[in-house]
From TrEMBL:
Enzyme Commission designation: 2.7.13.3
Keyword Ribosomal protein recorded: no
Domain Signal transduction histidine kinase HWE region: 34-113
EC top class, as a word: transferase
One Pfam family recorded for the sequence: HWE_HK
InterPro entries associated with the record: HATPase_C_sf, Sig_transdc_His_kinase_HWE
Name recorded for this polypeptide: histidine kinase
Reactions mediated catalytically: ATP + protein L-histidine = ADP + protein N-phospho-L-histidine
Keyword terms of this UniProt record: ATP-binding, Kinase, Nucleotide-binding, Phosphoprotein, Transferase
Source species, domain of life: Bacteria
């Protein structure tokens, strides 16, 4: 069987599983909030499945990268189901740790306490996953001297009724960094999915010592909020 046909068979099987799950939820009379959240997750999973297939070079590459992408979405979904929101700092730190990139060693994180709503958190987690994977496979985090600084800030004077959250990923320690030769899944996430779902503006700069990615999007109530430092739960709501 050709590799493209094998990928298509896997997609059909996964779509069938998703359909059965939706039917079971309907039959069980699951609460509207749960069904709505799962519908959002299912829609994102379908998009990830399709885009992963379209951008994969081989079946092995498709399977390997797909597993990591689905895991990133699932981890955030579990946290969101437990707390209702997701701590941005924890989201980024956990995703880096999955790639064995430890805060205080190869990574530095800084920014105000922000809680993201489930859908936005899943998208951001997917973006961080792609940036981390790319930095290990092709960028500076595969090098002993490679580091990444992830910082975020919120501009409360954005002029459209909500502050803008600006998230910056900056790699250092590389040499001779150049743009990729092909437009892969990671680029689709950064340039298209974030823009469509969050209204994000994403700028990529392939600087001599590493990639700089800046993502800016409105922090509306459906996306997330800034919370007070004191009394803020690690993953959920502030007190």
């Amino acid at each position: 069987m050709a590799e493209s046909q094998e990928i298509e068979v896997r997609l059909v099987q996964l779509e069938a599983d998703n359909t059965r799950l939706r039917r079971l939820l309907d039959e069980a009379g699951a609460p509207d909030g749960l069904r709505h959240g799962l519908r959002d997750t299912m829609a994102m999973l379908r998009a990830v499945l399709r885009l992963s297939a379209e951008t994969a070079d081989t079946v092995d590459s498709y399977a390997t990268h797909l597993e990591g992408r689905l895991d990133a979405i699932t981890r955030v979904r579990v946290t969101a189901d437990t707390f209702g929101e997701v701590n941005l700092h924890t989201l980024i730190s956990d995703e880096l740790m999955i790639h064995l990139i430890r805060e205080g060693e190869q990574a530095e994180l800084s920014g105000p306490p922000v809680r993201l709503r489930p859908k936005a958190a899943q998208l951001v987690a997917l973006a961080i996953h792609e940036l981390s994977s790319n930095a290990i496979e092709h960028g500076v985090l595969g090098l002993a001297a490679g580091d990444v600084a992830v910082g975020w800030s919120v501009d409360t004077d954005a002029g459209h009724g909500a502050g803008d959250l600006t998230l910056t990923w900056k790699e250092t320690g590389g040499a001779g960094v150049v743009p990729p030769a092909r437009h892969g899944f990671g680029m689709q996430v950064l340039k298209e999915m974030l823009s469509y779902e969050l209204g994000a503006r994403v700028a990529l700069a392939f600087e001599p010592d590493g990639l700089r990615c800046t993502c800016r999007f409105p922090l509306t109530p459906r996306v997330g909020r800034v919370v007070e430092e004191s009394g803020a739960d690690e993953n959920g709501d502030g007190a």
